[in-house]
């Protein structure tokens, strides 16, 4: 196969014209709505914002989901992890967040389908149309863009590359020794600046509730909040199946959310802990 150097990095289409559209990993539209009416592009590899550009204010990102906003609130421009096994309602919670952000706050959501999340793209697109978050009659009025790429969970993709090609000794469980550095270089770009903010909500599949897996453990380091979804709660019909005792947030501090909010959250957790102990 012939390889041609185009003298530029891999770039994708950006701008308001991309809202309401679905793109593959190469940035090509795949929903049969015609070409995207924009020529503005941006490279996929960019440097993280400089320190002086960052917005250091602590601002709560309201989701409209009471158990989250009350017990493990998200930070605007922060990084949040949704941890859970299969059928723990991660997809349902993501859909609820996209709907609430678009309708209540007029915000823009970008869903990135990676690995197993890619197979849910069609269902998500149809439901976003039903909720009128994506409006095919007025694409410009849409508040969400869907981007898919079967990348086999990028954090561990190099684990599948021949070790002789990497020229490095494998680390824990066969992952590359540069796993933490590579993950950090991406997550440093997810932040709040004086011009705007990007809040990242990342679904993390936890096999057999093993939070010690290298991918899971490395992800924890970069997060401002964790929402742990319990399959046991989901089977009981509790939706969303958030386990407030295992979920955490750096924003649940009295000097951020207020003394009343903080005390109420702590009392709720104490009550739930007592109930859990009595039912064991």
* β-sheet strand percentage: 15-25%
Overall geometry comes to globular
Low-confidence stretches: 148-152, 154-160
Strand order of the largest sheet: 9-6-10-11
Total strand segments = 11
Helix content: 25-40%
Tell me the CATH superfamily of the domain at 73-249.
P-loop containing nucleotide triphosphate hydrolases
Enzyme class: translocase
Protein name: H(+)-transporting two-sector ATPase
Catalytic activity: ATP + H2O + 4 H(+)(in) = ADP + phosphate + 5 H(+)(out)
GO molecular function: ATP binding
Summarize the structure.
By secondary structure, the protein is an alpha/beta fold. The protein contains ten helices and eleven strands.
Can you offer a commentary on this structure?
The chain has a four-stranded mixed sheet with strand order 9-6-10-11, sandwiched between helices. It has a three-stranded parallel sheet with strand order 2-8-7. The chain has helices at residues 66-71, 90-104, 121-130, 154-157, 163-166, 179-187, 214-221, 231-235, 254-257, 259-279, and strands at residues 11-13, 22-23, 41-43, 60-61, 74-75, 79-84, 109-114, 144-149, 200-205, 225-228, 248-249. It is built from ten helices and eleven strands. 31% of the residues lie in helices and 15% in strands. The longest helix is centred in the C-terminal third of the chain and has 21 residues, at 259-279. The protein has a domain at 73-249: Rossmann fold (3-Layer(aba) Sandwich). With 280 residues, it is an alpha/beta fold. It comes from Amborella trichopoda. Pfam families: ATP-synt_ab (PF00006). This is H(+)-transporting two-sector ATPase. InterPro entries: ATPase_a/bsu_AS (IPR020003), ATPase_alpha/beta_chains (IPR050053), ATPase_F1/V1/A1_a/bsu_nucl-bd (IPR000194), P-loop_NTPase (IPR027417).
């Amino acid at each position: 196969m012939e390889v041609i150097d185009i003298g530029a990095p891999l770039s994708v289409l950006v701008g308001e014209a991309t809202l309401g559209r679905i793109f593959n990993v190469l940035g090509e539209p795949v929903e049969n709505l015609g070409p995207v009416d924009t020529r503005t592009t941006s490279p996929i590899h960019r440097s993280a914002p400089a320190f002086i550009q960052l917005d250091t204010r602590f601002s709560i990102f309201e989701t409209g989901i009471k158990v989250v906003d009350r017990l493990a609130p998200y930070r605007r421009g922060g990084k949040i992890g949704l941890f859970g096994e299969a059928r723990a309602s991660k997809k349902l919670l993501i859909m609820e967040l996209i709907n609430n952000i678009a309708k209540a706050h007029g915000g823009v959501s970008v869903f990135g389908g990676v690995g197993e999340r890619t197979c849910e793209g069609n269902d998500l697109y149809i439901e976003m149309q039903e909720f009128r978050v994506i409006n095919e009659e007025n694409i410009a009025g849409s508040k969400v863009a869907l981007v898919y790429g079967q990348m086999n969970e990028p954090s561990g993709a190099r684990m599948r590359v021949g070790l002789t090609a990497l020229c490095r000794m494998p680390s824990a469980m066969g992952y590359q020794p540069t796993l933490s550095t590579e993950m950090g270089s991406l997550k440093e770009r997810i932040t709040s600046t004086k011009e705007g903010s990007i809040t990242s909500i990342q679904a993390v599949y936890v096999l057999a509730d093993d939070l010690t897996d290298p991918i899971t453990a490395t992800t924890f380091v970069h997060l401002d909040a964790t929402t742990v979804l319990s399959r046991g709660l989901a089977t009981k019909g509790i939706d969303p199946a958030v386990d407030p005792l295992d979920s955490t947030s750096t924003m649940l501090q009295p000097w951020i959310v207020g003394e009343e909010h903080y005390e109420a959250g702590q009392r709720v957790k104490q009550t739930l802990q007592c109930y859990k102990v009595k039912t064991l």
